């Protein structure tokens, strides 16, 4: 049974609401879409237009660095035919991930294609600008309102802040938009679910604090919580880290969609000092690291992290990252499987051991990585007058980067803690079935580097690495850099 949520242009209830262009006051006219012949509303979202960023200057990015994109969200359990009528001229239409082999048929300004199964896709014309994000989810049963602590039905809601306590839940109907931060501290058995939207555009970040503090910031922020479930919601327009999980245990993140992120440090998911985490079937388009595991306060062990069946689009920083903050004694038992990294910036896969952690037993399996000919390098904005200039030179992100550059040194801080003077040790990392779709004219790059001759990067195994379907038989055949590393084995 196909369910396409209704969506009407919404009027804000408060005429003095301070944000004049919240995207849900209208639909995006770039595309008209039909699903199995039925009209599907095309919603608008603001995204970054360029890899142009700055160290925190005390205000958010200028809107000239952004552009409008689109998304659709619908539910079903059947094969569907998608018809897209495009308002823009184009030469080529592509549906990503490339691993799904979605074939497009073009007739004048209309494009048709078939989606065989549920999943998260991106429709693009010629390049990555003005993309249409497609979220096709399994049908869900609506809960009884009396069974949910905070029930948001169809329409616009602006509670601004929701603070969860033990055994409390938030339900967001697929036809609902909720302007808020969902926050919890020292809570057990908490849940956010439903197919609707949590939008954080009501909040403005005003300084460089708040990441690790108790201040509610971003779409979702949970601290010192246990037994956490986040499922199916769409997270938009965060003021900072989008989904921040700090010092928590037993966390499930299932089929959430992160899109419409353009402000500074809008990491997709930051899993900090947390163990026993499952992340699956999610879509992340972020303007900083997409799925990142960090440790920031001398936590003993960060372990048992699973990331599976996710589609990621990173517009600044690193896509699947461990670090750069690794202030834990040990990271172990991390598994990344069946993920598609469709757009990447600095690195697709990175272990950035920036403190003193012993990182080991990390595996990556069936990871598909896409590099485009229009990839451009990150540019740091040095002052407010500087504008982004595209030099038209192709850039290829790192495919794999393992390093132990010191976090404090990179950010010009003194290393006062004696323990933090120790270099991080990364070893026993396995890569299996890494498939690269390279449209870029430059060679694929990998980096294995330690800043210490005494603490090496070691015991790294890569099995079945392919580039455009061809097996890589020797690392020397691609752009490889190795320093203070040993036992780097290609099978």
Written overview of the protein:
The structure is a single chain. The chain folds into two domains: about 25-135, Dex49a from penicillium minioluteum complex, domain 1; about 145-490, Pectate Lyase C-like. By secondary structure, it is mainly β. It starts with about 30 loop residues before the first strand and ends with a strand. The protein has one helix at about 405-410, and strands at about 30-35, 40, 45-50, 50-55, 65-75, 80-85, 95, 105, 110-115, 120-125, 130-135, 150, 155-165, 170, 175-185, 190-195, 195-200, 220-225, 225-230, 235, 245, 250-255, 255-260, 270, 275-280, 285, 290-310, 310-315, 320-345, 345-355, 360-370, 380, 400-405, 425-440, 445-450, 455-465, 470, 480-485, 485-490. About 45% of the residues are buried. The strands form four sheets. An eleven-stranded parallel beta barrel has the order 15-17-20-23-26-28-29-27-24-21-18. The chain is about 0% helix and about 50% strand. The chain is built from one helix and 39 strands. Residues about 10-25 have low confidence and may be disordered.
* CATH fold field value of the largest domain: Pectate Lyase C-like
Helix content range of the residues, please?
under 10%
- In CATH terms, the superfamily of the largest domain is Single-stranded right-handed beta-helix, Pectin lyase-like
User: How far do the termini sit from each other?
Assistant: 46 Å
Helix tally? Answer: 1
Strands of the widest sheet, in order across it, are: 15-17-20-23-26-28-29-27-24-21-18
- Overall CATH class of the largest domain: Mainly Beta
User: In terms of structural class, how would the helical and strand content be classed?
Assistant: mainly beta
- Give the overall shape, derived from the CA principal axes: globular
**CATH hierarchy: architecture of the largest domain:** 3 Solenoid
